[in-house]
Amino acid sequence: MDQFGTVDNLLQEERVFRPLPQLVIEANVNPQELEGARKFARMDHQGYWEEAADELDWFKKWDQVFDDKDAPFYKWFVGARCNIVYNALDRHIETANKNKLALIWEGEPGDTRKYTYFELYREVNRFANALRSLGIRKGDRVVVYMPPLPETVIAMLATAKIGAIHSVVFAGFSAKALRQRINDAQAKLLITADGFYRNGQVINLKETADEALMGACADCVESMVMVRRCNIGVEMTDGRDFHYEDLIRQERNEAPTEVMEADDPLFLLYTSGTTGKPKGIVHSHAGYMVGVNRTLTTVFDIKPTDIFWCTADAGWVTGHSAVVYGPLMAGTTSVMYEGHPNYPQADRLWSIVAKYGVTIFYTAPTMIRMLMRFGTQYPKPHDLSSLRLLGSVGEPISPEAWIWLYKNIGRSECPVLDTWWQTETGMFMISPLPISLLKPGSVTKPLPGVEADVVDKEGNPVPPGKGGLLVVTKPWPSMMTGLWNDEERYKEYWEKIPGVYYAGDVARKDEDGYIWIQGRADDVINIAGHRIGSAELEAAFGAHRAVSECAVIGVPDKIKGEAAKAFVLLNHGFEPDDELIKDLKKTIRNELGPVAVIKSIEFRKKFPKTRSGKIMRRVLKAEELGLEIGDLTGMDDDD
Length: 639
Fold this sequence. Notes:
Structural class: alpha/beta
Radius of gyration: 24 Å
Largest sheet: 7 strands, mixed
CATH class of the largest domain: Alpha Beta
Pfam family, one: AMP-binding_C
GO biological process, one term: acetyl-CoA biosynthetic process from acetate
GO cellular component, one term: cytosol
Oligomer: single chain
Shape: globular
Keywords: Acetylation, ATP-binding, Ligase, Nucleotide-binding
Protein name: Acetate--CoA ligase
CATH topology of the largest domain: Rossmann fold
């Protein structure tokens, strides 16, 4: 199958939601300013991003905004000296933000901790000094294998402050997956915790970290630092393992911030390994901080009174940009939660929103779908009136999930801002603003300073309504600067369609220029010559009241070449039977027309998912066709 062809668009969504007049009046960017910014960025791309860079503090300004001499290894803010931690913490200590809350943390058992900017600054300084005492220097790699704890944020910031490079590995990954990442990065230090709470259980994390360092592997690691979270008995290796609390106890609360070159690496972030050997995405200090700061403050209309909660784990790029660096650079207050969203019951997230007066709630469609299964009785008892903005990230959100979130959590008043971006992009790329007209399921238009399009396999723009391939046609500041030790693999992003960044997503653009993401390019089903994105079929299933989640794959068909098989997870109160199957197939025909042939429907209790909550369709397909399943290091085994 030619994965670079065009894709049939079948699903039509015609509902439009206008922002409340008060939201538009109070917005930091009004509609005229947004159009002005887009026009300015189109006329003077470098000038727009230079203006964004001027919002931040620099040790030395740049000699050149942009350098494309070694394309596709583009460079931004050439000659500048900076450090993202200076902008995330140090500069706030000289302003009114000094005594403002930076972080509100809640553990699964209900314990809480809060840090002002000044308190967080001093904690980061103490750990930065401790890292230096362990021999960590500029350019060294530090792997952070941690649950969502304040120390996770502190570890990332302290590492970056001294010029070392952090690589956060999600705490749900196996010892094998952790070892693989440690070895590829040649990490000198591993930071972990004794354990953490998840769904009422204590997960022993130190045990997994020890296993990762055993055998013919990970001999690059000289030291391990362990945070006491659960106070469980763990083995400590003399000379290698150190208690976090013991290390920082005697350290000073002031520490110099390393002066970094603009393109010095800030972090490595490995992809989850669902499609082969994990890729180490590299982001640098200058470009990343400029892009993330401008887009997060613009999209989420950050105000001094906001309480911002992004539910992502720090092990993903969303955690880096929307939990740690973005909110801190913006000087806002963030919420972080350790545990399972359904513990002790399915209203935990809504109780946290009400308890802390969260104003901006940013989560993933997989979380929304999971909570939808439990109905509206769980959010109803909680006062969610503090919310003013809702956001979605990570995968396409179906119109039905969008509407559920908008009505039941946002009271039909809070815009749902569906953001498209990637680990590779670092920052938000395509997204509405609070002032935008919203169409459920669409990420609307590229942000100012971002040039994106939907094209065919030759790179020609496709007509409105026709599916194609999503590309970014101009470099942007927070783009990855490369793949760790793999230049050739990095070039592939720019060679599949020469001269543009190939995102790997299928999309379409409607008559208003709104972009609709239809899924990954390799999740396309060819039914009798009609190439249909699996996300579109899944969204159609989601329109049925019985369906909680759905995954669709292509299976061989003697007549049509391929047909669709659906795997369905039902909402509570529904049971699988022949009548339901007939009704589901009727729904698909009504939503998409006769071309969307559903060969069979299989009901499931759970799906194979990545640790970030995305359904692993390739695993379902391999099981269905009796093929080799392949790498499962990125798979979630949490019920």
